[in-house]
Amino acid sequence: YAATVARREGDRETQTMAVLGLGNALYRQGLYARAGEVYRIALALARRHRLTELEGGTLHDLFVVSIATGQPLVAEGYARLALRAYGRGHPRIPGLAHDLAYSWLTRGHAARSLRVLDALLPGLPVAVHRMLALSLLGRAAGVCGNREVFERAWGAVWALRDEPTVQGGLAAALLELAYGASSLGERARAEHAAASALDLAGRRSEVDVVEKAGLLLDSLRGGGTGGDVPPADEASRVSELLADELVEALR
Known about the structure:
Blueprint: H1 2-9, H2 12-28, H3 32-48, H4 52-68, H5 72-86, H6 93-106, H7 110-120, H8 127-144, H9 147-159, H10 167-183, H11 187-204, H12 207-221, H13 237-250
């Protein structure tokens, strides 16, 4: 209704925002393909009417939905366009960097992820955002075998655990640390972090974290390594250039 009225009255910004809202509603229902179709309509509107701010956000949304539908290379293309649409100093660049770093990490590109996360951290004053980035840094460092960085991340996340403002992300952060400890062969610490994540996520009804922490604990207690993604064999030059752009933008 909002999109229809806005179109009728020539309010293109509200029309585009309403279409984006519909896409977000579809995404939250898990209807990723339909959400992507709606986001592409919003992108066309934003470009046609030179709504640069909304263009960047829509490209970011298309990145997220492309990851959800298993199209990582398409997603990186959207991320590159989003970064350029945002422009230097935009407040959503750290969020884009975090999303890309997580995507690379879960696909085996831990070194690339580590580089971006290291540049991201100094600009994160909000405790929960900093904690989540630190936990990913710890996981990436574990995969890369960088004990010094892992220890720094491990200590910093646990130091934040009693902060009231971080409780919504604490279970997920501890799970990431558990993966990092597992990759380093630190089985006892991996079990401790995973068990803590499982307990906290269970009390907060965080189903996704409960499932992943449970699987990791079962693997560790059965003598496994936790099953984190091994380092990828090849590095894409295009992806490395995107990481370079992100690091420069963050700094």
